[in-house]
């Protein structure tokens, strides 16, 4: 990271963390810092920084940086810092001060089942047991997830589109068949009409809902009935996942199966059989089929006279314990689209990075939203006022880039076209 960008990022971080008079009255505190690996001092990306079992949290960016607002009613709880492949660390929040900077080094944690024992584990049976226990393992009464997402599309160094939103998802319960509800709190979106005019990417409530794999198994191309038949699953070992011992199950398409198939890993808690982490992407044949099950297809809001080929597809979905039940924690997506314009005979490689973080879980609220967004309504259509203080009062994910500069650059490009 160059010095200029670091200074800009640090200034933005301090701006986010500044607590105004109204916020100070609530008694909340803000902490920030950096997570690194003890082994080599390198930043740890996607480390979770959360209030243990309370549902309030955030995650680190590529540079290992984070910022978190801790509500007043959590000041006597425990801060949990965890990441797959590393030992978990706990801190008493009572020992932290407002504005504290935490530089935390995590040690690697490697726990694997001896290879000779792996054959004794039946992966399909473990998966079926995990599916059967969803109602018992996950929050199974009405609750609200406060979420934040950022979706950035770019080609090389040129920004194409940037979208951010804070929202609430009302979940009736993980074993309840009622449809989720969506309430938008705040959003902003800018797209280059010069370089990306034929295409628009974004999210709608239905796509946000389906990112929660466990709550929407029917939409999951490898865990729904057809997906279970079309893929082969094998236990690769037992490993530590953020302090939990988990079966690591590898999967890929069965020989001869074509279409929207997947390859990846599923991690299931060895004690409760809860799904706690997914790491997957479309198979080579799946990449050729831009079907309804892919992240890219769910994110297409508008497509003009262009052709799209999916070059790469990668998704990560993680879950967290709130109390003694599990609930969604975060979703990450990384895709590359080859956008071809047959009229101009031009092609554009568009990188799409998506990060969705659950920043709070309310298990007390029982009543559904009175105001909500339609399931297939584009969140991009609800643009709030932007500005440097846009997210000041919200827990968000720190960006890997200067979002304010990108929004301004996209606005400048579009103004020049008028």
TrEMBL record:
Pfam families: CarbopepD_reg_2 (PF13715). Residues 1-24 form the signal peptide. Keywords: Signal. The keyword Transmembrane does not apply. The keyword Signal applies. This is Carboxypeptidase-like regulatory domain-containing protein. It comes from Mucilaginibacter paludis DSM 18603.
